[in-house]
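Input (Alpha-1,2-mannosyltransferase MNN22):
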Amino acid sequence: MPGYAGYVPLNAEGVRNVTQSLRLRLRPLQVLILAVVFTVIGLPLLIGAERRAAVTDYISTHSGLGGFRPSVLHRPDHELSAHIPPPTGGVDPDEVPLTLEARLEWFVNRPVLEQWEAELPSRNQCPMYTYARNTYFFHTQDDRIEKWKQVSKDTIRRQRQKVLDYFRQLDREGQKMVWTPALEKNTPKDQRRGVIYTGGDSAKNLARLKLSLHMLRNVVNCALPVEVHHYEREMKDQAIRYELEHKYNVTLVQSKAVFTDGKPWQIKNRAFVDTKFTQFVYMDSDNLPLQDPEEHFDSVEFKQSGSVFWGDLNKDHPDNAIYRFLGRPCSDEHWPAESGQVVYDKSANEGLNLAVLHLSNHMMDDKDFYGNLAYGDKDTYRFSFYALGLDYQQAPRMFASAGGYQDRNGQDQKEFCGHSLMHWGLTPERYKFDQAYHPKPAFLHTILGKVRYGLNPEKVFSHFKRPREDFINDKRLVRTDYQYTGECFDITLKGPDGMPDSPNSYGDGQGTLIPEMKEGLDPKIWAGLHAMAKDFVELNIPGT
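Output:
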């Protein structure tokens, strides 16, 4: 190199000797670099998807890369599983210990507000004219809105104290308020999971129960043990008892619940507490299983929370005094439950899920206060989770309305009319990171179908209607109005269709779809449902 005195040319042999010596001197450094590279690449593969987010977060934070993630494959779990709703609404155990004593103390010391003090925060988070909250019959009947306003601070303090007194009474009676392994030590392992029904209060309800049991045992082929809880006055006919016990392999359990006039919701809550099952799937007697309920225990949603509830038609009214009782503003993060089906683990949340059931029982028993705040058991579960500061888990999809193109008397019509709620299932572990996955149908709750006379059995379950985008937390559900019209369960799209090629498109992709039922079901399940349609319809004929 001209002008540079230190430059001495090397021949080819010299170059080989120098590079070889460099390779020898650099080998430890190369080994270290290769080890780091293989660790970065291989560690996520070795530890599995469950922990990849933590590894990539650490690498990005400590490598000077900031928030950069080198690949979509290394996105955190909460992004890859965005199709699975997380359990939310609870208090961090680091903030309030996960013990019943600590949670009750936290609850009774929540803020106590008058209606006017709580109104603006609640109405901000639960806008009045969305999700049918201002038209839902429970909110508008019996002058409830005025009754909510009359709930005073003193009433709230008194009712919170009654919760404490209730648990103290349970303690004095020696009842277990928090689940422990001792509660199942005498229960064989194969009897710790099962299915619960309640029923038997009328011949028609008993017949519907048999249809559900037929679907359970003979169509979806569920082998789980089954309990049917009933009031003392029910199930007296020995022939019926024999049929249920031997044809459907169920155990009949006489409930400790006290029969009352009106809807017999108390027996459901009592069954949840008294059952021998630690983990159970509950179904109303008018609910038809469309998949084996045992699959729900292996779902992502159940494993991450220990309970799963399915959404209902509406959302909460912001002025409901229940939120002042709970010491929190109204929130839209959860839909009220449609509790014709529940998946539950009494041992979850360090055993506090059993305390949730006890508190729900207390709410059901104190009708004078909670009767105007909660529409039966379906609301008391969620409010009990809130009261104890525990996360609440929703199923991932809003229900579809199942029915067909006939009116309540079986006459053909152009408009779709749904009489049953078709609830979608949960997410198997193998689909945890598959954002395209949509659960299959799991339950068909025939709420209106059971009181429709003269339906054509060939068309009774012909179609179903659903939002195109039906993820439970999707903000676009505000445009698909769920409502009971008096004749049907309808899902009405507000505004134009959101697909790009639609006239005057809203551009958000939302809309409604009406597929044929046989397209949405496994062929075997569809055949089983279609085969029992005649029996289902004939149950509704007056005088039968």
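Residues 197 and 462 are 27 Å apart (CA to CA).
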